[in-house]
Amino acid sequence: MVSLIKETMKKTSTTHYVILIIIIGILSLFYSTYILNRKIEEYQEYHKTPSLENFENYNYKDHVDVMYNNSLENYKKGLDFNTYSIKTNFHNNIQLYDVRNDYPLITYGCIQTKIDNNIENDINQTFYTKTYEFYAVTINDVYQKIVGDINETLSKVLDDKLDEPVFVLMYQAPYLYFNNEQIIARHDVSNNLKSVYQQNIDNIEIGTRKIFTKLLIIYPIYDSNLKKYDNEEGVIKFHEYFKTKLSRNKLCFLECNKTNYYACGCLNRNKSDNNQDFYKSSCIEYTGEYFNYGMMYSINKYNTLFSRLFTRPSIII
């Protein structure tokens, strides 16, 4: 009888322990989501345009820098923002506004490929890579995917930290329509660089809908099995592979939905994904050939959104 009571108490204690662990896990998830949203809000608050009431304290130089003196504008002007040997190369460019102010994403370049050239297979075979396809409302949706992926990847590596650099290749399929007819994206019809433009008889709508977005988050320090390359072998492979695909076509610089800080390129889409938000998009070169244009960014681990994600937190028992 005594042994039966002890056994029952033991099972009850184990059940309570499991329930407690589950509750702690759920609370941790809610807390992590809350912290991420707070960080995004803080970042947006810090970088928002000043109100008229604060105009006297407005720094005009900063305003010019944020629009014209940054890694994206540098790339447009023909300056390549990459190197073979220095992993955190953008930190050598402190004169750029987005580097100096630790923006989340720093421009690497635009990747142009023919639509029948599936570079995703090549990338997946060479580097540890995760792909996400979704409909984004704002750049915040992109940030959340990146945060979630870095967290997941850190949990899989053997070390207590995740080695950088980490890159994200971003594509968005532009929604360009006139009187319900698709407008083909070309250099001569993309003067406003907006990814969402819909004009009907009664009105014009810009940036008012979800945009199909594709992300490839690439970890060039690691091979496809999440094993570290020796020295900087992975970084060299990364630069070698993408250097022949860099482009400055105007379609590279279509703005990400609802932001003018980042460009998201141009992605062709014709096959329905059975989503209610599906739409077609086309991106054509001067020659009439169809190309995909994706913007590659280096993820800035010093930004407040990512600063604590690259190192596994210590657990005190």
Largest sheet: 6 strands, antiparallel
The residue-averaged pLDDT reads 80
How many extended strands? 10
User: How many domain units?
Assistant: 2
Radius of gyration: 23 Å
Percentage of residues in helical conformation = 25-40%
Low-confidence stretches: 41-60
DSSP strand (E) fraction?
15-25%
DSSP helix count? 7
* N-to-C span: 35 Å
Structural class: alpha+beta
Spatial order of the strands in the main sheet?
2-8-3-10-1-9
The sequence of SSEs as H and E is: HHHHEHEHEEEEEEHEE
Q: Can you walk through the features of this model?
A:
The longest helix is centred in the N-terminal third of the chain and has 46 residues, at 2-47. The chain folds into two domains: 1-49; 60-299, no CATH class. The chain is globular. The protein has helices spanning 2-47, 60-68, 71-76, 97-100, 119-126, 139-154, 233-242, and strands spanning 105-114, 128-136, 167-172, 175-178, 181-182, 196-199, 204-206, 211-219, 246-247, 291-299. A hairpin with a 2-residue loop joins strand 4 and strand 5. The chain contains seven helices and ten strands. Residues 41-60 have low confidence and may be disordered. The strands form two sheets. The protein has a six-stranded antiparallel sheet, sandwiched between helices. It has a four-stranded mixed sheet with strand order 5-4-6-7, with no helix packed on it. The chain has 317 residues and is α+β, with helices and mostly antiparallel strands.
